[in-house]
């Protein structure tokens, strides 16, 4: 732990008073491959009639066998690379055995001790609650690939089972329990979602469940907080069924409050899985009954191991990610963090911005723009939606030039307008003459407005100054 | 026309020359099944009306009827694995083996009895009754592919598909007096075979002669995109390969004669002398005692069973878990234990390491010899109910078969005549990975030389047309 | 291998729950005897020195066996086929007793 982190923790300790929240995230993301993880059924299960998206394999019929989808493996590696993970040279699938009606084979093909990737970290900048930009670094424990389950609908005294989703490739991303406040968790999730969309491997739609978040929360008593002996609490509460990042934050905050109250009474919160009620913003116990949990993992005998060669891994590349783009825009273009952040939230907009800039670079001589910081101006125009990014780049540039270029000035019209404006603003002229030279901008603005922008502001300014002084 | 005992190749010739109609041949076997199978109980389902199937004298099987063990999925035909859990399960798809047979115009005549879920060496755990030994109805046919073995031995089908996890083809082939090939693991697709021990399961063939085995192997062997463990290794022309007489070095391991009935040992020795006489070199080899393979097999197979049988929850098909028989329940319980937290290393992991030892052991041996020859089973067919007396229920019967399964190497049972009780004796030949063609070559030589001690005629005289 | 342990009735009840089976007392008694005999037999693995041996996790030497990401129409099942073997169904859903 470096000194910086020490100071932060100490500060947060003061803030939290007696308990230190320890928060980790487990994120499941459905890949948007064409076909499922282990069979050739379509992945776009959403909205289809129940049990109409299955074959013998994903229905778990006797005798069926899984054959892994290569693209899903490559995309998992892509995600792992984006999260700066170490890719395991040898990886394998394992069976996780448990009974649940939505799990057709009574085991989920997952990964246990040799996941595709481990030990990563994600760095990104955020604006904190005091509007300061700070950098976060979140340690990633592992990234692995598995298959999704079917879906259950509970109705009366029955549960209805739909296997359309069963077998869709699912990537699990696990962070270290490094979050101390819910805001950081929310920022991380947003950044992760943006990255996954940049990679073009997942829709990450929380409402459709194609991205699912399970925070685990526990509180560490400060008395036991010893810098040299880091000891995590002896319990952990997992929260399921959260369908937005905002709710993830609320759920974490609620848990911190709930667990604090329990700890205050001298009790230890129960290790359990809790659900989140989004109407009441509270978590509730989901499994009261003590259930036997022993997944009896063992290597999936139906799938030979994966051995990743350097040459194979080298072909899986990661595009420039939002974090790097923010850095580059700030560094190279001098953009404000806020603009760079907004521009990069949507990959298409960021790419559009990059296209405009590169086009302008190649035709800068032709374009007589009048702007001290062209990129900054473009950014502002995009962020403030002054020019639509739906335009083809050439049209965008045309509009841009008309907004920023020196204007062809109708000299007679200009002279007439300046006369009128000066005539109407004798008071301002007086102030200017007294030395309040700033007033000139007001006059320039008035003229420009009158001319509907069809004049060059510098020319206007020079002419007004000349006029006043004469 | 007298068809009794004709080989697949002979029947094929008759069909191709139009001396015999496919329907006639089919009816011939249906009639024999009606006549004899009430007693033997080798079939669980017989496809009486074959009109659903395209029966044509084209393709490599030209309309030959094939019996299929009931743990292979057959589209539209009940597939129960001899368990009441699946008593009314009609698969919507064909296993790859069945699909390939149909593609070559093989006709599925019926589904053969097995131990329930293929758990056993006797078919006594079948929920639909034991398959009796065609040589002695008071005895078992062996298992788990007992129905396939008995149907071939009594000529209720000219050829049959079986499956092995460790011994389930060789044991019943041995006890019923037929040829039984368990190929290399991965040589034949497992797609559509109801899984028992996934890292062991291996489809195979039971027939009256070696050439027929080669013919069917040609059709069902080879990589299947639906089975990731089926291998790319090219399939050679097995039939052609039989025609050249090859000379081999044959290994004999004393460890495979421990606890084996004296009469069997004597017959195996006699066979070794025959092989020697025909020009093959005989050499002693040392192998790990098969008793360790029993532990390796039992731990790993039970572990896999406990997972593979999880899907039978009665939601999508079949009955719920209360319908499992005693043997399945016992196996699931043990496998659940050997995989459970805290015991995984002591059992599962240790067994995987021992399995590697066995594999290495064969690898070393096969540097010096082409084959290892020994008995298939320590005794001939047991009396019905007799195996209950043995502490390890059947597992010891498979002992000599288990090392080859552990290593995933091919092995074959050849019938080598009857013992004093008129029960068939089996000779086992094991070969290195993907050496099926050599295994068939030496078996074919042996068959030519011995005619399997005339066992076919001795058996079939009990089952006249 | 160090002698592991003998399974007791309570161990068996736990295993029974894990494997979702129902066994009555007399069945458990038979299984207890049989399983413990089997576990005793496993002790023979202790004779083998496996300290320098890797685990034979897979039976073939194949690696990286994948399928391409394409739809396999040939295996898709229509709803009526999906439910053909189901004991309970309702509006094209499979039905179980409510679990939450």
TrEMBL record, chain B:
Assigned keywords, A-Z: ATP-binding, Ligase, Nucleotide-binding, Protein biosynthesis
Where do the Amidase domain residues begin and end? 25-440
The catalytic activity of this protein is classed by the Enzyme Commission as 6.3.5.7
Enzyme superclass (EC): ligase
What reaction does this enzyme carry out catalytically? Answer: L-glutamyl-tRNA(Gln) + L-glutamine + ATP + H2O = L-glutaminyl-tRNA(Gln) + L-glutamate + ADP + phosphate + H(+)
A GO cellular component term found in this entry reads: glutamyl-tRNA(Gln) amidotransferase complex
* Active site per the UniProt annotation: 69, 144, 168
Query: Is the keyword Metal-binding assigned to this protein?
Result: no
Pfam families, per this entry?
A: Amidase
Q: Which InterPro entries match?
A: Amidase, Amidase_CS, Amidase_dom, AS_sf, GatA
Keyword Protein biosynthesis belongs to the record: yes
Among the GO biological process terms of this entry, one is: translation
**GO molecular-function term, one example from the UniProt record:** ATP binding
The job of this chain, per UniProt, is described as: Allows the formation of correctly charged Gln-tRNA(Gln) through the transamidation of misacylated Glu-tRNA(Gln) in organisms which lack glutaminyl-tRNA synthetase. The reaction takes place in the presence of glutamine and ATP through an activated gamma-phospho-Glu-tRNA(Gln).
PANTHER family membership: GLUTAMYL-TRNA(GLN) AMIDOTRANSFERASE SUBUNIT A, TRANSAMIDASE
Q: Which family does it belong to?
A: Belongs to the amidase family. GatA subfamily.
Q: How does it assemble?
A: Heterotrimer of A, B and C subunits.
Q: What is this protein called?
A: Glutamyl-tRNA(Gln) amidotransferase subunit A
Natural source organism? Candidatus Roizmanbacteria bacterium RIFCSPLOWO2_02_FULL_36_11
Automatic annotation (TrEMBL), chain C:
Q: Which GO terms describe its biological process?
A: regulation of translational fidelity
Q: Which domain of life is it from?
A: Bacteria
- By its UniProt entry, which SUPFAM superfamilies does this protein fall under? Glu-tRNAGln amidotransferase C subunit
Its recorded name reads Aspartyl/glutamyl-tRNA(Asn/Gln) amidotransferase subunit C
Protein source organism: Candidatus Roizmanbacteria bacterium RIFCSPLOWO2_02_FULL_36_11
